[in-house]
Amino acid sequence: MAGNFYQRLIDKYEPMTEAAFLTLVSVRKPIKSDDIPQKIADLTHNKLQLGLGTLFTNLHAMTKDYLMTERVDADEVHIYEITGSGEALLTAERERLKLLVDIIENEDLKAD
């Protein structure tokens, strides 16, 4: 049953958009919503940013799909953290991306 649930999530989210991927990676440890844009900037060496609309759309959808949890502390600060389902999705996406990297290497595709 759990495998079927994970497969449905994988089918829904794969291939992951960059925004979805970065959002999910950024919540692998508990993080305040206000800190997520900086976490994404750090992960991408300031090369990618998400608009707040995109970020909060992803946070809402992924919380609804049980890929992460959301809690609100006493100061009304929203804190997000990945779930086991979210980790399973990241594992599947890692394998998909690894396949693409292997193709690049095997076909000797070099940047110009």
Give the rounded overall mean pLDDT.
Answer: 91
Name the poorly predicted regions: none
Going by CATH, the architecture would be: Orthogonal Bundle
General shape:
globular
Query: Strand order within the widest sheet?
Result: 1-3-2
- CA-based gyration radius: 15 Å
Please write the string of helix (H) and strand (E) elements: HHEHHEEH
Class by alpha and beta content: mainly alpha
CATH topology: Arc Repressor Mutant, subunit A
- What percentage of the residues does DSSP assign to strands (E)? 5-15%
State the major sheet: 3 strands, antiparallel
The helix count comes to 5
Q: How much helical structure, as a percent, in the residues?
A: 55-70%
Tell me the number of structural domains.
1
InterPro entries: WH-like_DNA-bd_sf, WH_DNA-bd_sf
Organism: Lactiplantibacillus nangangensis
Protein name: Helix-turn-helix transcriptional regulator
What does this molecule look like?
A three-stranded antiparallel β-sheet has the order 1-3-2. The protein contains five helices and three strands, in the order H-H-E-H-H-E-E-H. The chain has helices spanning 2-13, 18-26, 36-43, 52-64, 84-106, and strands at 31-32, 68-72, 78-82. It has 112 residues and is mainly α. The N and C termini lie far apart (47 Å). The longest helix has 23 residues, at 84-106. The protein has one domain (2-106): Arc Repressor Mutant, subunit A (Orthogonal Bundle), CATH 1.10.10. This is Helix-turn-helix transcriptional regulator. InterPro entries: WH-like_DNA-bd_sf, WH_DNA-bd_sf.
